[in-house]
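Can't paste images in this forum, so I'm doing it all in text. The chain is below; anyone willing to post the predicted structure tokens underneath?
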Amino acid sequence: MRRGGSSKVRGRGFTLVEVMIAIALMAVVSVMAWRGLESVTRTDSQLERRSDDAARLLRALGQLETDLALRATTELPLPAAATAAHASAQLLPTALQVRSQAALPLLIEIVRAAPAAPGQWQRVQWWQRGSSLYRAAGEARREFPLPAPDAADRVEVLGDVASFGLRAWEPGQGWRNLPAVAPARVPASGLEAELAVLPAGDGPARRFRRVFVLEGNSPG
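Text version of the structure:
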């Protein structure tokens, strides 16, 4: 007869099968947590890239708006080669030219006041080459002819650009693609810039439009 009239039951440990099941469950939970964290990190990175892209786009359009707001009211003499191609002279202000030239489907040139040199003017050009949108400002001077911007002066203001287009609003006629090929009846009262920007990942280009009011535009 055992002492105390009762038997002591020893604690039983985990079997190998139970340990393996526990490890498998921990592995599944770990994989789910890792995938969730990866998804959050990827989404955060995409949002950050989109935010950066939107900021660059807004800066580019803001700079274009500033250039247009500072445009001069003095006529810029055109080179002979550009005069024949510039059929939109009656549509656009005298200090604003949109034309096509060799290797560039579209170039916009603005004669504007030079903020860093009061009383002086400069030629500013915008154009797309490849997937980049460039801007270049020429030397500021008080008298015409103003020098064209040098190739070394160009600055990439926006990347991943699929297309860059401009249209002018002719009152009573509607939007006209630039450069225009026919004379206008009345001067344009607005200018629209359209940019198609490629996303950071795969997907179609996103299109953005900004309309600028051409105040004080009158026939030259």
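The two ends are 124 Å apart (CA to CA). Helices lie at 16-69, 80-85.
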